[in-house]
Amino acid sequence: MNKKAHHSRHSNNKEAIVINDEEDEPKIQKKIKNDDDCILNVDVVPWMSKKTLLIRHPVLRLHNEIIEFFDYISPSDQEHQRRITAYLRVEKYLQDIAPEAKIESFGSFKTRMYLPNADIDMVMIETSCTQKQLFKKVAAKMMKQTNKFENVNLIANAKVPIIKFIEVQSQYHFDLSFNQLDGLKQIEELEKAFEIYPELKYLLMTLKCVLRQRDLNETYSGGVGSFLLFQMILAFLREYRKDFFQHNKQDQIKNVTLGEYMIKFLEFYGIKFDVSRKKIDMGRGGSIENKSTQDERFSLISPQDPDHDVGHSSYKIKEIFKIFQNRHNFLTNYNFKPEESVLRYLINPTDQKFSFLKPAQF
Questions:
Q1: What does pTM read for this prediction?
Q2: What is the DSSP string of 88-152?
Q3: Compositionally biased, Basic residues: which spans (predicted)?
């Protein structure tokens, strides 16, 4: 896994380059295998193509797998349209409750960067009411609409009060917040970052699944939510690129594979980052700084609000970083077999069916 790629694997044209077996080792003659010679368990690794299976170097195989996983797990146009339809039904109901309110979607639903079971994030804005007044008004109405909403969960004591619920007709999960503008401000930042760092979207979707498979993806239960994960990846990418610029080697960034990015990310947070001594200030470009006082909480300062520490609520961060360390050590020391999925050891390390199976795509 330590062998590096010598060809351009990832360019700034906003699309990752899929590696061909010939590009992997052009000087080595290979026996061409028939499809029947490839053993591919589509229930365990449904994203992996037979072409990728034939790549010898695990780090390059991982690069291709990450791209194929992104394509596999991302919502299709039909899937996304079903969510839009459900969102519009909920939006109409909320608008009837509060005609003066402005209702917006944000987060992964807005950017189409969500896993199949992800919540749809919505915010209701009405400046004539306080956050709590609006929360109580909507909660009282929704609790009575059992034909429209189920599993209504009122989280009133959080820093940002939200109502979590399932829309009965679609069975989609929703998170509704009130008079909270941070999520809307984040959309522009997300879209800009995806333009600057084309590798970001691939890392984000893969790592979302890593956390989801371990039930560590919800901030309210101590995990790392989508926006915090996005900020963590962004901070890592900025830090990782510094070395290239400091040594006037920025032209080599395009040669870094997604496999290398993933391993370096796991190393950065799993091994190098000192939670008790360091903090990340996204308002200062993601700079890594010393904490004024040592503590065991993860600290990542919001780019929108210097008084908002996005990382503080993730009280399971040491458990998460321990997983990153474990997976880094495994990926860099395990002797991968030919024709074996590398990515499965990150997102589906058992032999059970993958959680998000879709109809066969290959």
A1: 0.83
A2: HHHHHHHHHH-TT-EEEEETHHHHT---TTPPEEEEEE-TTS-HHHHHHHHHHHHTT-TTTEEEE
A3: 1-11
